Amino acid sequence: RMVAAVLVGLSLLSLLTCGYLAWGSRRGGAGEAPGNLLGEEPAAGAPGSQPHIIFILADDQGFRDVGYHGSEIRTPTLDKLAAEGVKLENYYVQPMCTPSRSQLITGKYQIHTGLQHSIIRPTQPNCLPLDNVTLPQKLKEVGYSTHMVGKWHLGFYRRECMPTQRGFDSFFGSLLGSGDYYTHFKCDSPGICGYDLYENDNAAWDHDNGIYSTQMYTQKVQQILASHNPRKPIFLYIAYQAVHSPLQAPGRYFEHYRSINNINRRRYAAMLACLDEAINNVTLALRKYGYYENSIIIYSSDNGGQPMAGGSNWPLRGSKGTYWEGGIRAVGFVHSPLLKNKGSVCKELVHITDWFPTLITLAEGQIDEDVQLDGYDVWETISEGRRSPRVDILHNIDPIYTKAKNGSWAAGYGIWNTAIQSAIRVNHWKLLTGNPGYSDWVPPQAFSNAGPNRWHNERVSWSAGKTVWLFNITADPYERVDLSARHPEVVKQLLRRLSQFNKTAVPVRYPPKDPRSNPKLNGGVWGPWFKEDEKKKKSDKSKGANKQKKSKKKKKAN
């Protein structure tokens, strides 16, 4: 009651976004329309057979950073949703933002879209290749209304790359990988700075009131749900900016975390607390406006946490940006009244590419026969507890990442050059080659000081010349015991599988930065800068010049 009294004194805006409301509460609150109380299902008629799909993607949430994984950070909403749904405890994503998002939206590995190296930078003339059919496009084909709120990070140098051109009816959010949570400005380098908040295809100056992005995105979601007819299927992709750096949060969310000495961890905890409340309010809105009973809510992090920015993957090894388990094993669950085995744990292998075919099938859509997908339909695995159709995951092959100095074809038994960064999972086995990235285990006590303090980390002593690792992930999920010397035949088998995958890879798309991308040349806004007309004019001019040269040569010859 005391907390409720305090909340009454807060601004209306706070109540609309991150104010905490009890499950099934009948009080007014976030996005409420007059005469309709929270928790009350309006008479919207019998739900259709096509479910409402709500996909929530958190940014940089560490494996340990959820209550049911033992975190000191309270996440009551996530804990309750997961407990009443199906927890995915053998669930994998990619180690960075763009790769995970591209695989979610296409159902394809990075090697099959050309995005196998790093992320799409703000100044690069690059985006998810336009010849890839996207998840929202397929859902639109079968009558879904498709909306995206949050972080895009799949490129924007051409107008055709924008979310509204890739299958979304509406888009409200940011195009880049990160930015200020309040001002929505981002500097890619000194002097290269711009505004990054969009409403569809235009800068959202009129919709920006300096609101914290987690709250602002939640408010937008509530508006979408309030205005849509729940009798018609909706796909809502909510890609929150939190808990990616910069580490910013409204002051009141620090209340329970004053005892955390590490400032980055404390800020991170406050950000996650606000995110948890926001997801509570999204769920309440689904109930309020009549979507919940026919909805599927999927929650996922896009990659592992970054310890230097407050995230924790303990007891897993490594961090964001690496192919150790701490970089690619994610928090994930499905919550839905449509699940058959509610309150269960799924330990079958599931990968982020699997959502593409799974959701299209649930939506009664069709997978094009000529499209080679890397994902599998895993709904029966999740809902009914059946075996997963997936037996392997290509975590990635990055041919242009910094080569391991001691890697060689000889170390790869003549099958594979172990200087190349790659990682693959086949059944219980996981193989890594090249330079897998930062490989420490970072225990909770590492956050006791201003660090995380590497003194507390379990440091890895590298064996001279080592470029191949093999682990039995089922028996050794923390990657403590390298079995590559003990099982050379398994190593060879996985190297052959890598080689097979590599034969299907398309060339890497990672162009140099384009000076025309500077927001100063685009009204101070990050946005499309590449003009197709300019390219045509240049090509026409060059063609004309070539014709003139040819005619001159002919005259001389005559």
From TrEMBL:
One of its GO terms (molecular function) is sulfuric ester hydrolase activity. Its cofactor is Ca(2+). Keywords: Calcium, Glycoprotein, Hydrolase, Metal-binding, Signal. PROSITE patterns: SULFATASE_1, SULFATASE_2. Residues 530-543 have a biased composition (Basic and acidic residues). Residues 1-24 form the signal peptide. Residues 506-558 are annotated as: Disordered. Residues 544-558 have a biased composition (Basic residues). Residues 51-363 form the Sulfatase N-terminal domain. PANTHER family: ARYLSULFATASE (PTHR10342), ARYLSULFATASE J (PTHR10342:SF69). Belongs to the sulfatase family. This is ARSJ Arylsulfatase. It comes from Chaetops frenatus. The lineage of its organism: Eukaryota, Metazoa, Chordata, Craniata, Vertebrata.
